[in-house]
Design brief:
The complex is a heterodimer.
Chain A (H helix, E strand, L loop, with lengths): L5 E2 L4 E9 L10 H4 L3 E9 L3 E2 L3 E5 L5 E9 L17 H17 L3
Antiparallel strand pairs in A: 1-4, 2-3, 2-6, 3-5, 5-6
Chain B lengths: L3 H7 L1 H9 L15 H6 L5 H10 L7 E3 L1 H8 L9 E5 L10 H14 L4 E5 L3 H12 L3 E9 L7 H12 L3 E6 L4 H12 L2 E2 L5 H22 L5 E5 L4 H12 L6 E7 L22 H9 L19 E5 L1 H15 L9 H12 L5 E4 L11 H10 L3 E5 L9 E5 L8 E3 L1 H15 L8 H10 L4 H15 L1
Parallel strand pairs in B: 2-10, 3-4, 3-6, 4-5, 7-8, 7-10, 8-9, 11-12
Antiparallel strand pairs in B: 1-2, 9-13
Chain lengths: ~110, ~475
C-alpha cells in the first residue's frame, strides 16, 4: 500500500501553477516552447492540509498568498559536483610540469 | 482578442515608472536619441557617494591578485618578449560572491531611501544572490523571478544553486519554465506588490559597477605604477562592460583598452525549451552579449543604462571547452577555485596575453563564487546527462549544444575576434527600426548614434547610406 504524502498547515512546501496557457503566450517563440504552458513554482508555508497534487495556498517569504497545486513537501536541494571529469583531470599535472620546465629554462641561463 | 500577456504589457510603462521611481521620458530628445549622461547622473550620486554606499554595504575593495604562475605558463607557449602579466580582481570576495553585489547595493540603497517595502529582480544569475543578500541587510522584502526549468522541470545545476542561495538569503524565488514572459510575470508582481524594480539595467545598477573600474585603475597604479594596458570583461547584458569602462575613464585610465569577452553559444536559441539545458553556461555568453549590445533597449527599463558599444574596443569569443580548461588551470596553478562563467574573460586573457609584449598588463576584472552545482565539474556532468558529448581535442571543433571539446594543451586556447563594426551597424539598423516608419534621423540623432556606438558622425552617415541602399 502506498501512502500519499500529506502536507499540514505551517509546513514548508512548494506549489506549482500554470502562469500562461500556450494560447496566451508571447508570439515569436520557437515551436517547442510555444506549445507548452509557462509554468511557475514557488515555496512557502502551507495554509492548510493537502496531499501532493492537490490544491493548496501558501504564504511566501514576502507574505504573498499563492494558490497552486502541491508539488513538493519540504523541498531540498540535491545539486552536487559529480564525478571528476576525465578530460580535465590531467590539466593540473600538465601545466605544473610546463611551469616548472619554463622556470628552469629561465634560470638555467637561457 | 488581447491575451493576459498583452494586457499587462500594455500597462508596463505606467507600472515600471512607479516601480523605478523615475520617469525616463524626460531624457528623450527625439524618436531615436536620448540624453544618456543626464540619465546616468539623475540619481544624484557621485562616484564617491557610491563608494561610501558600497563600503557600508560590505561591497567592493576586493583583492587584486597578480597571477604569476598563469603568466609564466602562458609565456612558455609564446615567442620571447611576449606574454603580458595577468592580474585578476577577485570579485568572488564580495558578500554574495560576485561583482553583481556592486550593482545590487546601489539599487537596494535607493529602494530603502525611497521607502519601498521590497524589491523585485528578474535574473537567473549571480545578480539574484546579490539582490537577496543586500535586501536582507537592508531589511527589505525580496522576490527573484528566475527562469529555472525546462518543461520537464529539469534545471541546470548552476541555476538551481542560484535559487538555493537566494532562498538562503530569505528571498521568495519565483521559478519558471523557459520563455521571455519571465519579464511579464515580473511586471505583474511589481503591480501586485508595489515593490521597487531592482533592474539589472537601471542607472543605479550600472553606476554601481563604476567603482570596479575605479579600483582597477587605483590598484594597478599602486602595484605597477600605471593603468593596465587592457581590462578584459566577461560580457553578457553589457552592464559589466559599461560600468567598468566608465569607472576606468572616471579614474583617468583613458588609454586602457576595453576588451569584452563572451562564450560563443552560436546556434542555440535562448527561448528554446530544447536548447535551455544544453547551453552549459547561464551567462557571459553571446546569446545575451550580441542581442543586448546591438539593441540595449530590449531590456526591462525604457532606456538601458548598459550600452557597451559606447566603450568596447575589442570583443573576443571563446568556446565552452576552453573556459572549462582555463577554470581547471586557474584552480591548479593559482589556488583560485572560481565559477566557470566568471572565468570567460580569464580564458580570453590567456589568448590576449600571448599576443602582447611581456611589459604589458591585463586585468581580468572579475571572478564569481563556486560550489555545488555552480562548478565546472557539475556543468560538464550535467551536459553529459543532457546528451551533449564531452571530449578532449581541438576546441575549434566545439559545437554548442552538441559537443564540448576540452583543449588538450594550453596553446589551443585561442580567442576569436567578433566583428565590432558589424555590431555597430546592426545597432544603428535596430535604432532606425524602433523609430516611427519614415522617420529621418536629424543631425542630433546622428551625433547620438555616433556616441552610442563609439564611432564618428561620418561613420554613422556612411552606415545610414548603406542601410538605405539595402532597403531600396
Amino acid at each position: 500500500m502506498t501512502e500519499t504524502k500529506q502536507a499540514h498547515a505551517g509546513d514548508w512546501v512548494e506549489v506549482e501553477c500554470v502562469l500562461l496557457e500556450p494560447a496566451d503566450r508571447s508570439t515569436n517563440l520557437p515551436a517547442e516552447t510555444a506549445e507548452k504552458p509557462l509554468m511557475m513554482w514557488v515555496k512557502g508555508f502551507a495554509e492548510g492540509q493537502a496531499a501532493l497534487g492537490e490544491p493548496v495556498t501558501v504564504e511566501t517569504m514576502t507574505g504573498r498568498k499563492v494558490a497552486g497545486k502541491l508539488s513538493a513537501i519540504n523541498p531540498g536541494y540535491f545539486h552536487t559536483f559529480g564525478e571528476p571529469i576525465p578530460e580535465l583531470v590531467h590539466i593540473g599535472k600538465d601545466l605544473r610540469a610546463k611551469l616548472a620546465a619554463y622556470r628552469a629554462s629561465q634560470t638555467g641561463g637561457a | 482578442m488581447a491575451t493576459k500577456f498583452d494586457a499587462i504589457m500594455a500597462r508596463r510603462g505606467e507600472i515600471m515608472r512607479r516601480a523605478l521611481g523615475m520617469d525616463y521620458s524626460e531624457f528623450e530628445t527625439s524618436p531615436i536619441a536620448f540624453d544618456y549622461e543626464r540619465m546616468m547622473a539623475a540619481h544624484g550620486y557621485s562616484l564617491d557617494d557610491i563608494v561610501a554606499i558600497q563600503t557600508k554595504a560590505g561591497v567592493g575593495h576586493t583583492p587584486l591578485l597578480e597571477l604569476h604562475n598563469l603568466t609564466d605558463v602562458v609565456r612558455s607557449t609564446c615567442e620571447p618578449g611576449k606574454g603580458a602579466r595577468i592580474f585578476v580582481k577577485d570579485e568572488a570576495a564580495n558578500l554574495a560572491g560576485a561583482f553583481k553585489d556592486r550593482r545590487a547595493s546601489v539599487s537596494i540603497h535607493v529602494a530603502k531611501e525611497k521607502g519601498y517595502e521590497g524589491v523585485i529582480a528578474a535574473t537567473s544569475g549571480n545578480y539574484g544572490a546579490a539582490v537577496a543578500s543586500q535586501a536582507a541587510r537592508a531589511s527589505l522584502k525580496c522576490i527573484i523571478c528566475q527562469e529555472t526549468y525546462d518543461s520537464r522541470k529539469i534545471g541546470q545545476p548552476e541555476i538551481v544553486e542560484k535559487a538555493r542561495i537566494c532562498e538562503a538569503y530569505g528571498a521568495e524565488v519565483v521559478q519558471m519554465t523557459v520563455g521571455p514572459e519571465l519579464f511579464f510575470h515580473m511586471v505583474e508582481l511589481l503591480d501586485e506588490t508595489g515593490y521597487f524594480a531592482a533592474s539589472l539595467y537601471s542607472s543605479f545598477g550600472v553606476s554601481g559597477i563604476e567603482t570596479l573600474g575605479l579600483e582597477v585603475s587605483q590598484e594597478m597604479r599602486a602595484l605597477t605604477g600605471a593603468d593596465p594596458t587592457a581590462c578584459i570583461i566577461t560580457h553578457a547584458g553589457g552592464g559589466n562592460t559599461t560600468g567598468t569602462a566608465r569607472g576606468l575613464k572616471l579614474a583617468g585610465a583613458t588609454d586602457t583598452q576595453i576588451v569584452s569577452a563572451s562564450v560563443d553559444l552560436s546556434g542555440l536559441h535562448m527561448a528554446s525549451d530544447n536548447d535551455f539545458n544544453r547551453k552549459s553556461f547561464t551567462t557571459g555568453h553571446t546569446g545575451f552579449g550580441v542581442p543586448f549590445a546591438t539593441w540595449p533597449d530590449r531590456a526591462d527599463v525604457p532606456r538601458n543604462a548598459a550600452r557597451p558599444l559606447r566603450y568596447i574596443d575589442r570583443y573576443l569569443t571563446v568556446t565552452q571547452g576552453e573556459v572549462f580548461y582555463v577554470t581547471e588551470a586557474l584552480v591548479k596553478l593559482e589556488g583560485l577555485e572560481r565559477g566557470p562563467a566568471g572565468n570567460t574573460a580569464m580564458t580570453a586573457a590567456v589568448s590576449l596575453a600571448r599576443d602582447l609584449p611581456a611589459e604589458a598588463t591585463i586585468v581580468v576584472q572579475e571572478t564569481e563564487y563556486t560550489g555545488a552545482g555552480k562548478h565546472h565539474w557539475a556543468q560538464l556532468n550535467f551536459a553529459k546527462q543532457m546528451g551533449v558529448e564531452v571530449r578532449s581535442g581541438d576546441p575549434r571543433q566545439n559545437k554548442p549544444g552538441t559537443v564540448i571539446v576540452i583543449p588538450e594543451r594550453l596553446e589551443q586556447v585561442q580567442a576569436n575576434d567578433f566583428d565590432v563594426a558589424r555590431m555597430r551597424r546592426s545597432y544603428v539598423r535596430n535604432s532606425l527600426k524602433a523609430a516611427p516608419e519614415g522617420y529621418v534621423p536629424t543631425a542630433d540623432d546622428i551625433a547620438f548614434l555616433a556616441a552610442d556606438t563609439n564611432s564618428t558622425t561620418a561613420d554613422v552617415e556612411a552606415m545610414l547610406v548603406e542601410l538605405a541602399g539595402r532597403e531600396a
